[in-house]
Amino acid sequence: MTKFDEATAAIRVDETTYDVCLDPGYSIGGPLNGGYLMAVLLRAVVDASPHEHPVTTSVQFLRAARPGPARVRVEQIKTGRTATMARATLVQNDESYIEALVTTATLEGADPRWADGPSTAIPPIGECVRLPDPKPESGMTLNAQVEMAFDPPTIGWLAGKPTGRPEARAYFRMAEPQDPDPYVLALAVDALPPVVFSAGERGWAPTVDLTWHLRALPAPGWLTLIGSGRLIGDGWFDEDVEVWDSAGRLVAQSRQLARVGRG
Asked: pLDDT per residue over 219-228, tens digit each?
């Protein structure tokens, strides 16, 4: 069992309740990363389901969860031969922090009948760059749990040279050796810096709604993340992320709506 497996573990209390302990290692300056929280939630949902994989997840982030004890409540809405729909709630201090609708199924790993390629190219990993280590007082502990190598133009904002477009592209893997699985993909779809940074915005950009789809079980190795946005306006922005595995297959895709950063 890896550190990530332990950090996302859900212990069954009864048919609808799971105890979890939210790990401080996945903080983004105080609040916990939304992808990490989804992975915790999905551990409970899949355990309660007769199916093995979370094929679609739609999450409303109600509050910014913090490290510490919490519970996941799972309510099955409909169970069928090929899919099960469930409602899941992350509860901390008697308040709901995340509400989610999750559909589980069992993917067989069959070759796709038709597949498109990545929406844009990313240079070889040797030409990509790492973000500098955050200052200890920043509370950005997530960086220590993952390795990411970025397409240089998409992090030009660090030097005050944003591209002017909402975009982010990077290679991704866990810092501790671990083959990617659906829970790692849940983390990956929310691991990029907000795409509005590259458009010239800064500050914490809280996600309000995120939906992601598991399209295939990933091959071992680096994942490729391609993030983009279509509209920034009235204090809101959208962010789409494609996740490609080392075999060149689309394994996950997501869309989120978030607030433009403040400060």
From this structure: 999 999 999 9
